[in-house]
Amino acid sequence: MTSPPNWRRAGEALVRQARERYRQRNLRDYEEGTRRSAAARARKHGPDDVDSLLLRRKHAVALRSLGRFAEAEAEYTDLIRSMTATVGPGHLHTINTRAQRAAALRDLARFSEAEAELRELVAAAAAGNVGTAPLRLWHAVALQDLGRFEESEAELRQLLEAQTRLHGPESSATLVARMNLALAVGELGRAAEAEAELAAASSGLATARGHLHRDTLIARVQHALAVRRLGRAAEAESELDRAIKGLSATIGPHHMDTLRARAWHGVLLHDLGRLEEARPELGAAVDELTRIMGADHPYTLRHRWHLARLLRDLGHEDEARAMRDAALRSVDSVLGADHPVTREIRSQGDDHARPG
Questions:
Q1: Under 8 Å between Cβ of 70 and 51
Q2: What residue spans define the domains of the chain?
Q3: 346: which residues sit within 8 A by CB, 6+ positions away?
Q4: From 50, 208, 268, 347, which residue has the greatest number of CB atoms within 10 Å?
């Protein structure tokens, strides 16, 4: 007997699809609007007018939001030359534009360049009496991209102490620093400490910024992954599923943060032996990550590897082997032997990290 359709679930899916189409249309409209506004301002006041340059920076932000990372990075690079000539290298506008370019470099997996840029910016901001806290946070995150977790932990501990002293332990800035510190701690093998810190950070951010704020939801995702590391897969899957619903409603199902969470959700379903549920969740996330970030981005490579092990456990040996071998070639040639994703995949060997 055929099961009746779940009309409520189908209706919710249609609402989500309509919301995402509206969001994407708004982003495209915003990108076109900022491009036209910047061009019109430049025609009237000149291309080096400060407001013209700031409108171009808004356009670069729109390009990043649409996943057009190479175009955004090129726009930022050109803007930095113009801003340096117009307002000077130490001006806040120039420093902020360089920081945004570093974010675009991270999108493009150019992690060494991003770290070097942010390290220079921290020094430049300190010399120019500009607040360094956001730059120090981003630099610490860039160190994690490179697998330099001990350095990241040291920088974040200093930042957390300063933020706590200036703003108090419950401020959102302090809690975001605490969350990122917990990520470094977890990568250094101190799983229980990381889980406790992430639980406190996610709870504090929910109070400070609300349950559906992006920072709160990201903290919940990271807490779920910390719980997974402690072997509590069912608890982690439930928390991650709730966080994904929040991210989809808040920033959209195709945002990078949502896609990465969905990929990990597929991994957790695999851990729990729910292979038929895991396949569409992880497969769709890998397809979207490949489309947006490229096949050889570390985020994509990690989850291509996870998908290969899932396919193997579903009995698709040939497809799994081909995907595994392609991922191994990419991590060696693109990321290098010392990248944390390479070490993670290589440490798993031929077993593909069977669930457990």
A1: no
A2: 30-134, 148-252, 255-356
A3: 331, 337
A4: 268
30-134: CATH class: mainly alpha
| DSSP character string of 28-58 | HHHHHHHHHHHHHHHHHH-TT-HHHHHHHHH
pLDDT single digits (tens) 237-290: 999 999 999 999 998 898 899 999 999 999 999 999 999 999 999 999 999 999
If you classify domain 255-356 with CATH, what class do you get? mainly alpha
Residue 192 corresponds to which tokens in the numbers above? 């229980």
What residue type is 109 in one-letter code? A
Q: How far is CA 144 from CA 17, 101, 219, 336, in A?
A: 34, 18, 16, 16
Q: Which CATH architecture has domain 148-252?
A: Alpha Horseshoe (1.25)
- pLDDT, tens digit (0-9, with 9 covering 90-100), for 306-348: 999 999 999 999 999 999 888 888 887 777 777 777 877 777 6
**pTM to 2 decimals?**
0.85
